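TA notes, week 10

Several of you asked for a full example with nothing omitted. So below is the full record: structure tokens for the whole chain, then the designed sequence directly under it. When grading your own attempts, check the secondary structure regions first.
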């Protein structure tokens, strides 16, 4: 596997704990929307600390982009990346991952689990192939919603937000469960379901989808 040493060209805050990083792109580098790579920060003591992050740029872009949530409660890689600056260097490897667009369907994301779907949805918009696809996005508070305006522009009324920890939200309140999915989606055959989020979220959503009759072969997630 090849390794690439790349400079941060731009850094932009998207939420209180999420940053967009624009990086140099190696000549000939290829990936599919939805794929990820291992990333490390080339700072003393952190070079070997590799973590998986998803590309949120498009393969046709002349740069690479990552959208990364920083977990500031402990001294880890994401906290260090949150403190990184333009000009700092990251090392990445080749692209990998099993999340890719298989056909129209329902994207279900929890928090930073939206990142594989950002590139896919941007790609579908560029190709005018959004069709009947929809997005259900679960977060703790309104302020945690990543790229709300862009996702709303892409999906319109097929973009649903559900908030768990904020009482005064104007969005749906609670957690994604069978009742919520049945209400929003309606039918569960003849379409794909793309699921990404924390472990507990994945277990709950995948179980609910299977109980509602989704075809296990139509479930797309990181295996």
């Amino acid at each position: 596997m090849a390794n690439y040493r790349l400079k941060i060209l731009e850094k932009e805050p998207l939420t209180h704990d999420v940053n967009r990083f624009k990086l140099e792109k190696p000549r000939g580098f290829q990936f599919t929307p939805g794929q990820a790579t291992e990333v490390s920060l080339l700072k003393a003591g952190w070079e070997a600390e590799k973590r998986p992050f998803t590309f949120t740029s498009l393969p046709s872009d002349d740069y690479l982009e990552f959208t990364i949530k920083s977990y500031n409660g402990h001294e880890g890689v994401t906290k260090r990346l949150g403190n990184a600056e333009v000009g700092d260097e990251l090392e990445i490897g080749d692209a990998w991952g099993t999340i890719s667009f298989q056909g129209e369907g329902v994207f279900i994301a929890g928090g930073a689990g939206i990142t594989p779907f950002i590139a896919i949805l941007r790609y579908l918009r560029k190709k005018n192939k959004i069709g009947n696809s929809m997005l259900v996005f679960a977060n703790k508070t309104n302020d945690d919603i990543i790229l709300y305006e862009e996702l709303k522009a892409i999906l319109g009324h097929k973009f649903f937000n559900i908030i768990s920890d904020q009482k005064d939200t104007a969005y749906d309140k609670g957690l994604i469960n069978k009742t919520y999915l049945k209400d929003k989606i309606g039918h569960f055959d003849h379409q794909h379901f793309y699921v990404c989020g924390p472990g507990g979220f994945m277990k709950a959503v995948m179980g609910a989808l299977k109980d509602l009759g989704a075809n296990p072969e139509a479930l797309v997630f990181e295996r």
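Residues 75 and 81 are 11 Å apart (CA to CA). Use that as a sanity check on your answer.
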